[in-house]
Amino acid sequence: MENVYDVVIIGGGPAGLSAGLYAARGKMTTLILEKEKTGGQIATTEEVANYPGSITDATGPALVARMVEQCNEFGAKIEKDTIKEVKLEGKIKILVGEKNTYHAKSIIVAPGASPRLLGVPGEKELTGKGVSYCATCDGDFFTDFEVFVIGGGDSAVEEAMFITKFARKVTIVHRREELRAAKSIQEKAFKHPKIDFIWNTTIKEIKGDGLVESVVFENLKTGEITEHHADEEDGTFGIFMFVGYIPQTDLFKGMLDMDRTGYIVTDDNMKTNVPGVFGAGDCRVKSLRQVVTAVSDGAIAAVQAEKYIENNFEE
Ligand code: NAP
User: Fold this and answer.
1) Which residues of 268-280 are buried (b: 16+ CB within 10 A; e: fewer)?
2) Per the UniProt entry, what is one GO biological process (predicted)?
């Protein structure tokens, strides 16, 4: 048989990198597979203010770079590949990627979650042309322009604050009249001179020919429909969507136990229903999805993978 890794980790976000660090440090042969860029969502987060110890240079990319360096130092391999198929039934698990096939004694599933689309007409067509899901990536395109941020959670309010660095005005559009975001973040946003709110409102349609030109809002309480047009001089404006995330777990449907929304069910030791397969990070059913809980999951999963190998594979 080809090279069999002790642990293959799917996903190079904080959960996967933490698992990689612990696994490699535990002298297990470790491979981290990432389909895009290491770091997951945190790689596009400007400020990570609530990760303990992250005070100087507390940007997402800086934190990710330190995590990657630490993984490399302990000998974890990080490779770019997209896994298309998994075979979990045998003692040796098989992962079929676009580039290679991988064999592993244990697997840590840490693929994270991706932004949820609002699903309104015009959204897909105008993504990258005024509609965005990443303030760090696209915020500066809207320097001195107007921006609408959709959603009322931590992401919407934090990213709205970040966009005020560029935009001349940021309006948070939320479907209720109370934000879901943490109170501490809310207070800052309410006080911010560049931030306005539109309550009980959602988007019905986004219009534009090559660039966002107008947006149709619906007031969910009164049913009133209004259309906001770009300022004549600007010709366009930004719409940033932060309406939650969807776990990237399709690959494991029918194999791993999940809740109704696709989050993987694990026990406190990150064990899934399949022996030797562990879940970690935002893909799993949990009450708090943050870097600090993701790295904790990764560490637990790696230590449990080590125990699983000790008990199930002879030297
Ligand atoms: P979230 O907490 O799920 O919030 C999503 C927001 O979008 C909610 O306000 C929701 O409204 C709204 N929404 C959902 N579907 C919608 C629709 N179809 N139309 C209009 N609005 C819709 O997502 P998140 O803010 O991305 O946060 C995800 C997780 O990461 C959370 O656990 C959050 O605490 C965490 N996070 C933490 C930090 C931090 O601690 N600094 C930063 C970012 C994210 P309702 O409120 O009415 O449901």
Assistant:
1) eebbbebebbbbb
2) removal of superoxide radicals
